[in-house]
Amino acid sequence: MRHVYECPVRWADLDALGHVNNVVYVDYLQEARVDMFRSHRVELMGQELVEGLVVARTQVRYREPLLFRFEPVRIECWVTEIRAASFTLAYEVHDVHPDGSRTVYLTATTELTPYVFAEERPRRLTAQEKAVLEGHRDPAAQAPERSPGPTQPRRSEVGHYPVQVRFSDVDVYGHVNNVKYFEYLQEARIAMMGRLWDEVPGSAERSALVVAQVDVDYKVPILHRAAAYDAWTWVSHVGSSSLVMETEIVDGQGADGEVLLARARVVLVFFDPATGRPRRPGDDIRAPLLEVMSPSC
């Protein structure tokens, strides 16, 4: 059984292109997930699975741009897999038209782990929780596609970005909220692209990009502190109309050395703002991307 959540669209959710920003979609998914578990609070007999969860992995596929409107957008979520100490939810953000057809804006999955925040440790699912989750499994749904594995990190100053955690980024358990990671990744890659194309005339117009896919693995919780964390971004693939950027967020001040906090893979597509279709960027845009892919860089 799929859970349905009617999600309002806010004016502040839009980016410079007039589309709902890629980061905001992840906030929509979180709202749908919370609504799903709150709706079944009685069946779960407590708050543990309603609020005691951490996100271990998120995969997002952006299909169509969503524009501002006063009507809510429909989000369906359902269970795809149940394991001993984690489970996976799938989502579809869409509109249903009068003729029964759908416009799908986004599909996604999140792997979730029950967590004992007082002891900072994961826990196993109870039999009752598994039974409730089983009731939300969609046996007809296809298993989500797995992305290619991570590439070898390539660190250089052009891809370095200091991640400064704001107090408002932190949830009630003292961890940075999972949605905020997408914001950090966005800031890191924008900073890198700004350095790469700083001296390319007209690059803002000729390098229009949209996010097509984001995969994030959450390794260790990020906490609020005065010192910045480090985000390292590199280009791992340049296609005819797309590129792949990967990022690691690390804590270099750990007592036992550097600690990997999160890892992400982002697919971006160059497009023509006039037509909305993918296009090949000019060689002056591609050249800096290919240069930073070089092993000698």
From TrEMBL:
Residues 135-158 are annotated as: Disordered. The keyword Ribosomal protein does not apply. InterPro entries: 4-hydroxybenzoyl-CoA_TE, HotDog_dom_sf. Its EC number is 3.1.2.-. GO terms for molecular function: fatty acyl-CoA hydrolase activity. Keywords: Hydrolase. CDD domains: 4HBT. Pfam families: 4HBT_2. The keyword Iron-sulfur does not apply. It comes from the Bacteria. This is Acyl-CoA thioester hydrolase.
